[in-house]
Amino acid sequence: MLDNFLDKMKNLLPAKKEEKKAEISNVANAFFDRLLLWADQHKISELSYDVRFKCERGLPRDKQKLLILRDVNLSRFDISELPRELFFLGLIASLNVRDNKLQILPRETSNLKHLRFLDASHNAISELPSEICYLKDLHTIIFRSNQLMFIPQDIGNLESLTLLDLGDNHIKILPPEMFKAAAIKKLFLHENKLEELSQYIGQLEDLEELNLANNFIQKLPKSIRRLRKLTKLNIQNNQFSSLPKEIGELESLLELEAGNSVMNTPNINRIMHLPSEIGALANLQNLNLCDNDLLDLPNEIGLLTNLIKLNLSNNKIESLPYHIENLINLKDLDISGNRLKKLPIEITKLTLLRLDISDNPELELTPKQQAWLTTIQIVRGAAAIQSADKEVESPAAAQPAAIQEDRTPAAVNSPAAPAQNVVTFTQKGFKVELGRDNDKITIIHTIDEDAKLILKQNGNICELTTIDGESFLVMENQQNTLDISYTANSVSFDEIDRNTIAITLSSQKRD
Asked: Does residue 429 share a domain with residue 338?
């Protein structure tokens, strides 16, 4: 609090009690006057809810409110410096100064003994002040998109630190001491200039998310095996030529991003083979290996029975192992841009929602596989694929509507469902399409990023499967009632049975 500042003034105050009180009052008033003058000069608004950014921003002009201020949000005010006086408000627990023009963070930040959250992202700060490394309550540090080149060694002293985001900077080396901050659960170091990952990473045994994308790392250390709680690992756009067998010990891993999202850059992964140990990742749901140099897949890929999304696009794969039939939860398979000539017949056992087989110029499908395509909601590349049996016309040939060649999601009828049972609703930039077959009702929708979707079946909130911004719901056809509620409008699908799909649109605005 202000007392911390005023204590430093005691030796300047007169001995007489009355004069001492008056001097303290004058110092306090001058302190607040300077802080509020700075706020006015930099057009810092009065503390209020900002509808545009959906949060409270600004500084109160009342001195008593300043003294008890805990959450300070000065983001997006175009400020280039912070006043020293701000850091003598000793109760501040959260400080947000993102999206400004700051080049330094004052060393007086160390005065904020109760600080727990610090966001200084999207500025031009070149140095992380070592003084913040002694704020024992600090659990979140976000310095993404600055000009940092180094990390202070003392950051390892932060025993409460659980999130450290230093992505999009110029960091080349990670000091070994930083890995003493053993409580870290989320570590984001993407878009830096790292050439290696320290073996000390294994000390962060509570780590759940690790983002190393867009660096120059060539291999993962063997100590990666100790990260048994890791659920998300992103190493895309580095310089990997292989994955270590130790990756199979990441027993909690849900997402592995090892592809390349940007190609016109020197940091490109060129993975040719996967270790058989990858089959030990029993909980893995998302595996992205796009734009590598993969020649084949190990049979152990079939052990990933919880896999939902598999992206193998733009590699050099000539065949898939029949073990792929064991991926019973797979919904999205992208094998485009490879050298496939045929698919294993067992692939027809998969219940996919999305399949991309485009850019495999020599690929041929059996009639059974052609028929299987009609059961998939979105298929890309099928129009250029010929049947392997030229004399037998695939049943799929009579159902071209089931094969979608563009990126617009569409509802799909089974061969028995008439076209009039597909219902489309379009309102304010989003689209809902509902189609039915004899056994299930399927809803596919796209929606604006800022819109909110609530979907209930018989009064219970349903979970959707989301793939590339397209969400899917498959429900059993048992006279259910579906309510789809958006931020502004509500659409109800009622009386769903084998013969009827009725829509009621309510234009009533929702909060």
From this structure: no
